[in-house]
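Q: what sequence does this backbone want?
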């Protein structure tokens, strides 16, 4: 499996503990709120991760609506299932977005928070989503905006550029691959969606210790493997990222994070 998509081992816990409170929680709440309480059928979540959005979706949806939360990473699915074990009405499954194990037109809505950037084939992933949606089914997903619009990401990226100046494979730019409104529009439209709307969404980051945020950025993502494979100490990199974050936004870190939110409906 591509290491950049393999959120395994201790990554889910670090992701949930450190990055969740920083920005994913706010973005997840925003995304879930965009769905109608009763979409035209069951709801599929792709790239559910640690269940941050899943919980908001379950709160948003009518109790009669079936919610299936999936992720390609078994570690993420296991973590989310355990975390939300007391919540009723959620089915967790491992699933590859490139070949979803569901029938044509099985769902009334598909939600994907910060997952589309990791699709090996973005066009294929969106076509698969369209395949499992009913006509006029709802699609809602978000992706990170450019690094320049995300100071925490920019600070981390700067450290990696200093540490690995000639190693493009260590940069981990995957999260920002879809930070292009025109590209997103073309991909979604080509996958047979219409009523497309793309919105910029910004949230505040505040009250998060710089070192905690740095820990999440390294140990809560595939960056930790990229670092260790190159013979460096993850703790050393975390310290450097924390120092860069403090210089950029203080400690606790005060800044913003920004994403692009896409909403569309399946063309009949």
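A:
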């Amino acid at each position: 499996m591509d290491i950049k998509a393999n959120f395994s081992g201790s990554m889910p816990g670090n992701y949930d503990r450190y990055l969740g409170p920083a920005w994913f929680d706010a973005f997840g709440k925003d995304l879930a709120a965009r769905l109608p309480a009763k979409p035209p059928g069951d709801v599929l979540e792709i790239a559910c991760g640690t269940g941050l959005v899943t919980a908001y979706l379950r709160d948003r949806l009518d109790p009669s609506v079936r919610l299936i939360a999936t992720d390609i990473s078994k570690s993420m699915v296991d973590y989310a299932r355990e975390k939300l074990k007391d919540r009723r009405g959620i089915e967790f499954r491992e699933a590859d977005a490139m070949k979803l194990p569901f029938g044509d037109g099985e769902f009334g809505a598909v939600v994907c928070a910060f997952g589309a950037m990791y699709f090996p084939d973005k066009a294929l992933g969106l076509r698969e989503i369209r395949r499992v949606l009913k006509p006029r089914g709802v699609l809602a997903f978000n992706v990170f905006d450019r690094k320049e619009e995300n100071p925490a990401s920019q600070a981390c990226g700067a450290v990696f550029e200093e540490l690995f100046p000639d190693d493009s494979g260590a940069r981990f730019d995957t999260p920002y691959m879809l930070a292009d409104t025109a590209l997103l529009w073309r991909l979604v439209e080509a996958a047979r969606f219409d009523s497309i709307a793309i919105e910029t969404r910004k949230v505040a980051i505040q009250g998060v210790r710089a070192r905690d945020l740095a820990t999440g950025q390294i140990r809560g993502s595939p960056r930790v493997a990229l670092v260790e494979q190159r013979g460096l100490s993850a703790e050393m990199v975390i310290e450097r990222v924390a120092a860069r974050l403090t210089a950029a936004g203080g400690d606790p870190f005060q800044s913003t994070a920004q994403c692009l939110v896409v909403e569309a409906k399946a063309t009949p």
